[in-house]
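Practice problem 4.
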């Protein structure tokens, strides 16, 4: 899920001097509410709180995080989709919200295409293929060979059906012509716990959920699903460089961005974009992200909208081809 080159940090196209004044002297005239569609304490929550604290001084108003977990981000997304488009309600929208849910669910209470105005991408969560400590295959080639020799016998965990972690494994099986059995969990924490205990064999884990256990040797990292090796795991090869047939272009991320209700004034969107991009460049935010294994990434609103559409097309094709549904 490679982000386009235009999404490099420092995309300040909308941070022009006139953007703030164009938003009107009365905005923001009250605290902003940032809805996070996940429980407090997780990687998504940390990202939102770090950015909220970073942009608050420039806006002159507090940014209050409101955790609305439930139904694969649908609860939070629905709340924002039907909020007043006045620039005071933000949403962390991720791969599930904008790219996977429209194909996973027969009916959604929101439209990913029509109900939101894109502000900026903010983060990518690199995915790492890890195994339980006792799994007999240690390299990616060995895992593929083992799975081919034992079709359906290898179990893989995920934080839930249709999650980026699940879809990454479906893509991997598709490209390697393997068949493994999916064991969905209600969240990353229980999946990782069972993986460490050897109850399941392997999974794609994001570093926000698994970095501590990987570095502690409780999970065995095999390959990263990124174009380049990760600084925190310099000795772990990428999937592409592992030499497995069919995986030369394999990439998968969990990504997140910020959206507001459709109809939010463009100058307000521009101001929010400028402040978020500035915050994502700050050493404080970058250090906080690095500490939980998250990559900061920014964009213009237009780039984010285009990226979300391309991701929806990419993962939608896979979901429909595999017949994945959560209804």
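Answer key:
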């Amino acid at each position: 899920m490679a982000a386009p080159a235009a999404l490099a940090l420092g995309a300040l196209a909308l941070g022009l001097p006139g953007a703030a004044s164009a938003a009107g002297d009365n905005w923001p005239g009250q605290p902003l509410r940032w809805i996070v569609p996940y429980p407090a304490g997780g990687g998504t929550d940390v990202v939102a709180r770090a950015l909220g604290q970073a942009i608050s001084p420039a806006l002159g108003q507090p940014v209050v995080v409101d955790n609305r977990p439930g139904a694969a981000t649908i609860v939070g997304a629905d709340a924002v989709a039907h909020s007043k488009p006045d620039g005071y309600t933000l949403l962390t929208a991720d791969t599930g919200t904008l790219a996977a849910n429209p194909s996973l669910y027969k009916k959604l209470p929101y439209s990913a295409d029509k109900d939101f105005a894109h502000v900026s991408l903010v983060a990518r969560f690199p995915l790492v293929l890890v195994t339980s400590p006792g799994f007999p295959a240690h390299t990616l080639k060995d895992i593929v060979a083992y799975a081919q020799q034992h079709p359906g016998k290898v179990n893989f965990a995920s934080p839930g059906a249709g999650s980026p972690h699940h879809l990454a494994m479906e893509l991997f099986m598709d490209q390697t012509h393997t068949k493994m059995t999916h064991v969905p969990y209600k969240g990353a924490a229980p999946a990782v716990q069972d993986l460490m205990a050897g109850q399941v064999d392997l999974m794609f884990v994001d570093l926000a959920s698994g970095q501590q256990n990987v570095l502690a040797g409780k999970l065995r990292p095999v390959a990263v699903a990124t174009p380049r090796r990760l600084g925190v795991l310099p000795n772990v090869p990428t999937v592409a460089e592992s030499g497995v047939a069919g995986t030369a272009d394999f990439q998968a991320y969990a990504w997140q961005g910020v959206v507001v209700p459709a109809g939010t004034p463009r100058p307000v969107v521009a101001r929010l974009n400028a402040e978020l991009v500035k915050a994502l460049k700050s050493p404080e935010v970058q250090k906080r992200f690095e500490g939980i294994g998250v990559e900061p990434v920014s964009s213009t609103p237009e780039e984010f909208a285009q990226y979300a559409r391309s991701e929806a097309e990419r993962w939608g094709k896979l979901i429909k081809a595999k017949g994945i549904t959560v209804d």
